[in-house]
Design a protein that fits this description.
Layout (H helix, E strand, L loop, with lengths): L3 H11 L15 H23 L3 H21 L17 H11 L12 H24 L6 H22 L4 H12 L3 E2 L15 E2 L8 H10 L8
Antiparallel strand pairs: 1-2
């Protein structure tokens, strides 16, 4: 079974970002927490904006980016692929979430398309709740270190909700993820003072000159899977 967490870890290794070091997970500094929170909210809002504009390609890209940032945030906390055991759950995968949705009888699209309003509202509310609960649990680690495991559990939940949205939308996730991963690996590490980062962080990874977004590849993949696309 493929695992997106491995791809995100490879990204962190390439750009010398934090990864697990064999020890237990640990909280981030307040500065890095603020950086990652901005990142999580940014991708959530980009998904909402894409939905409002009826742009399926951008919606898929935003959902993939959200999972990427959630897993990356776990790595900033030194959480390994096996660290989910600390919180009693495995890191979610698209395949496991799809099986859960099928077994539970969720309404699934036959070909890629944006979800009905009710499903969209449920997913965005769930994403926001998980992100907020993650921040609250992480902040609480100052007084109660064991809250780190609850924080990780909220990251797992956030990624699961993004996966579930994609499952219900009928998205060919592995193929679209591959395009985003390839584009991400073509980026470069931000300057030491964060001056070229829109998030003003030296921990960011930014788009170099000539970099191209994976939108065209995602668009073509969705079309091949039967999506009716008007906006590119």
């Amino acid at each position: 079974m493929r695992d997106d967490f491995k791809d995100v870890r490879a990204f962190h290794v390439k750009f010398k970002l934090p990864v697990d070091d064999g020890g237990p997970p640990e909280p981030m500094s307040p500065e890095i927490l603020a950086f990652r929170m901005r990142f999580l909210h940014e991708e959530r809002i980009e998904y909402i904006d894409a939905f409002d504009k009826r742009n399926l390609t951008k919606a898929v890209d935003a959902l993939i980016d959200f999972v990427y940032v959630a897993f990356g945030t776990a790595l900033f906390m030194k959480a390994a692929q096996t660290s989910a055991a600390y919180s009693g759950e495995q890191w979610p995968t698209f395949d496991r979430v799809r099986k859960y949705a099928q077994d539970a009888g969720y309404p699934l699209q036959r070909s890629p398309s944006l979800p009905p309003w009710a499903s969209h509202e449920m997913m965005t509310t769930s994403l926001l709740h998980s992100v907020k609960m993650f921040e609250l649990a992480h902040v609480a680690t100052t007084d109660e270190p064991r809250m780190i495991f609850l924080a990780l559990k909220q990251l797992q939940a956030a990624a699961s909700y993004a996966y579930l949205a994609a499952v219900m939308m009928g998205i060919p996730w592995p193929e679209c993820w591959k395009h985003v991963q390839a584009a991400n690996m073509r980026k470069i590490r931000a300057a030491e003072d964060g001056s070229n980062s829109k998030r003003a962080s030296p921990w960011d990874v930014v788009k170099p000159g000539g970099w191209t977004a994976p939108d065209a590849e995602i668009y073509n993949t969705l079309r091949l899977h039967g999506a009716l696309l008007e906006v590119r």
